Amino acid sequence: MRSRSSWMTVLRATPIVLLTLLLSACGGGGGGGDGASTTANSSTSSSSTSSASSASSSGSTVTNTSPSPQVLAANAVRVTVDSGISNVPNMPFVSITICAPGTSNCQTIDHVLVDTGSWGVRVFASQLPASMSLPQQKDGAGNLVAECMQFFDGYTWGAVKLADVQLAGEKAASLPIQVVDPNYASLPGDCAAVGAARNTPASLQANGILGIGVFKHDCGANCAQQAIPATYYGCSGTNCTSIPLAQTYQVANPVPYFATDNNGSMLSLPTVSGGAPSVSGQLVFGIGTQSNNALGGAQVIGVSPSSGTFTTVQNGTAYTRSILDSGSTGLFFQTTLMPACASPNSAYYCPGSTQQFGAMIEGVNGTTSAVTFDVGNAMSIAQTDGGDSALPLLAGPAFVTSTVFDWGLPFFYGRNVYAAIEQQSTPGGKGPYVAY
Prior knowledge:
Helix content: under 10%
Largest sheet: 6 strands, mixed
Oligomer: single chain
Shape: globular
Radius of gyration: 20 Å
Strand content: 25-35%
Distance between the termini: 19 Å
Strand order of the largest sheet: 1-20-19-16-17-22
Structural class: mainly beta
CATH topology of the largest domain: Cathepsin D, subunit A, domain 1
Mean pLDDT: 86
Low-confidence stretches: 2-69
Number of domains: 2
Number of strands: 24
């Protein structure tokens, strides 16, 4: 997910969110690397550079064609991009059902963010009924486990609990999830120092997060090997102390824990031109496991097994920590080809007119893919399409370093985008990889 910033204060007083990439200091997942420093592919050929006006002639060009309409099956859930809980554009939502393990005591929660850039389920304690008692996760030493989930500019805090997570006909039983609760125990100082608290639906701009990226657990081997500040804690009463935590106890991506269709997922959204009040698509579980999730001719982009990143080359610059991130409300990258909007809206780009750019995506498996993308003037978009929820022309430099190219939700419009989970076999080989 991407970091938060105000959305065009000329349009509305309520700030909107650019949800951050959850590439936290604990690393990308099961590979055990440090997501903050590990790159997907640092050696980039200058021959794969694409110009600012058109796609590179090398590699295969991907165009925004609408995915084929499909009837919802047992392995699929409806995804909507709508006004959500606070009129934030480019946020894909699903409903998920949380149950006390092994019971029919369940609660369905709507407007949960679909996030291919993070791993794990996060819901708010305020969204669960008082009658639902979820057992708290304990580590091997019997400590009650809590988590501080880090964003670039903030955190979510709460207990790690066990729940049955249901999506359509799929269920992950007794899955460790984060129940976000600002009143749980006593907030550790190193967690509070991360930044702003995102411990309510209003501050997160969603009722939860469904992290379905390429890793099984949200911190992976790094957290198993050592206690990482502002990550996992063992709590006794109100006192919580930083601890290492084996992966089996960590907050988990539900997909690999389904009984079937558990090797990845496909997010399918229609093409959007200009803007749309809302759009509807689907999230399909499994890759090549059913007739509705075939990989077909999709280009398989291998990602780093430690950070989940690949390389994007654009205008001669290699962005070695690139991601496909449905939880980001725009395309985020640093460039000198366009001016940022005037303060206080400098999180976005404001070119004089809509610009088309080309880029080359390079996987760690050697696959290259030429893509084109358009960027509009965010101020003009706010004035003319501010009531729309699907805005494919949003881009900006907000909260990314010079090595990050965050292909946020605008990339997903008109594509079937796959996330293959680490160590899981698929028709495109073992994960982790992304494909489109």
